[in-house]
Amino acid sequence: DMLKDHSHLDTSDSNEFVLYFLRHVVEDYTINLKQISHRIKQATEHLRAHRLERDDFVDFVSIEDDLSNILTSLAPIPPILKRLVDSEDTILNQAHARKAEDVSLAIEQSINTCNADLRRIVSVREAYSTISNNSLNGTMKTLTMVTLLIALPNVIFGMYGMNIGLPIQRETWAYFAVIGGTFLIVLVAYVIAKIKKVF
Fold it and tell me: How far is CA 94 from CA 4, 16, 34, 97, in A?
């Protein structure tokens, strides 16, 4: 791709050629970073719609690895360019120095984009973790309350199923009293749980 638009390029000027090469490399990284940012945006939209799945997190690992590789590749270049521009040996002329500064700025923007994308990934992961924990807490509270509401009648029915003398067991209305009393206890427990916002 770099060789398609080389009509104006003087390859005998090594400084010009290196800066031209670097500019194209940075442009390729910029295109790659835009694609990565788009993938992160999609994952964020999935989180908002509660559709974030295991594959999204596997994708995050791949994205983080890509971003780390990009940072590792780009980070050393601006200091080198700065040393060339500031060199007392005047390796670069004024035109080359301006181009080197432009390339350096473009690289620093790419590095900032990488860091921002890494922060977004961490934010999405932390948000998903918080949502999952809250959802799990709500489920556990509901299950605890359901277990309690099931256990209360079993305690009362278990007592009246024993082969020992119990109050009102010989009365004709005892069955309805036990059922009614159990239902009332369960209802009171349910109302208290609702008032306390257990679930």
Answer: 27, 12, 32, 5
